Amino acid sequence: MDYINAFWVGGLICAFCQILLEKTKMMPGRIMVLLVCSGAVLSFLNLYDPFADYAKAGASVPLLGFGHLLYQGVKEAVDKQGFIGLFTGGLRAGAAGTSGALIFGYLASLVFKPKMKD
């Protein structure tokens, strides 16, 4: 059942984003920012954890999880370091995932020889 819930929730989120792309003049970057901010807001309202417990990867994969991660990192850093935690918490929390994406993206470009789009 976990797979089914992840599939339909993740699909619903992606379908919503596709509708935004096609029916509005929003650019993909703005939709990605909307997803990240939505994850942070859901985390702030303590709604993300129950949502993620139900949807599993369907909630965390489409950028909502990144917003949640950033919010939790900032919240933890502010509790420990005070005001300076606003600037360091999100960077520290998201560093491993961002570094992994950059490293594996670079390795994939070495293996698959990307070409410029015409």
TrEMBL record:
Domain of life: Bacteria
Alphabetical list of InterPro entries matching this protein: SpoVA (IPR005562)
Keyword Transmembrane helix part of the UniProt annotation: yes
Residues passing through the membrane, by range: 6-24, 31-48, 83-108
Signal sequence interval, chain numbering: none
Keywords for the protein's UniProt record, in alphabetical order: Membrane, Transmembrane, Transmembrane helix
Pfam families reported for this sequence: SpoVAC_SpoVAEB
PANTHER family the UniProt entry points to: STAGE V SPORULATION PROTEIN AC-RELATED, STAGE V SPORULATION PROTEIN AEB
UniProt name for this protein: SpoVA/SpoVAEb family sporulation membrane protein
Source organism (scientific name): Blautia liquoris
